[in-house]
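Troubleshooting log. The previous structure file for this entry was overwritten by mistake, so regenerating from the original sequence record. Sequence copied from the archived sheet and checked twice against the printout by T.R.
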Amino acid sequence: MVLYSNHKLPLYVVLTMLGKILVLLLAGVLSVFYAEVLSGSSPLWFLDFFGYLFLLPLYMFHLLILYNIAVRSSRLSERSLYLFGVIFGLYESWMTKVIWAGFPESEGTMFGRILGFAVGELGIITFFWHPLMSFIAPLVTIEILSVHLGNSDVSRFPSEKLLEKRKVSMFFYYLILIFSAGALALNAGNIITSLLGLLGTLLIIFVLYKLITLRDKSLLSLNSLLVGRKALILMILYLGALYWLFFVSIRPEEIPSIQTMILTVFFYIFVALLIYLDKPAEGEGLKKEKSCLGFGDLRKFYALTLILVVVFSFIAELTLLILMVFFLVIIAVGYVMFFYTILDVLRK
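Regenerated output below.
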């Protein structure tokens, strides 16, 4: 009986660890889906060895490290989560050089540089896309799935306002929906690649979701994204290696002056200072009478994205015009979000 008991406990622990690892993978795949697939940057990431060795760890480890820091420091307001997302988006300086030199396929920056930073790219990539799509959207999705499974109450979500169906949140819901579908349809090159990337990644998400729920549905919550110190150190070391590898190998001709790199470091410090100043405040939670984003809204988003990708693929010229307008709008919205967050932190 003793031997049997001793064998049962390690087996249960191992199975629980495997279930938690699946949740971590789900978070990483969601981040890749929202950021890379819906932008059309890497729709077929799952068919490439690069996707599993570099792209998935890049997004998953950024997400997990920053979220764990947010929880440990009790900086979980919508302002702090947005600012953590800004830090996430700053990888586009050291790694891809986009916010220093513009997109790789373009001839220079969209609207020039200020202090070595590409004005347009900084607005859309660092102040809008990565904070919302790479960081916040996966967290919101996991919480919606968790609530759907009956694992948690909305009041446990770090920043309840992100789930609240307000005019501003629904504005971003449809803005992202239309822009994502158009970007995927155009950037993927053809409808087959678009649909394969969209449906293929959603299939991976669905399989991970089912494996988790079959193992233990209670594991599917934001609590499972919290990891120990050793795991954090390993992820930080892996990310550090990726930063160095990408810095020296991707567009090395676009490495800026030392002054611009120093300013980039100071920008990290400035955003970190804002997070530090955004101390937890009482009375900022969700009003219980408000409706929240739910599982139906999640399915609706995926379904409408699929439909719009097909539509946009058949009206490519019109889609290009629509996307150009949305591109400009999102750049402006990104700057508004960033500077509003600064003022809101100081006001709070």
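The two ends are 59 Å apart (CA to CA). Archived copy saved in two places this time.
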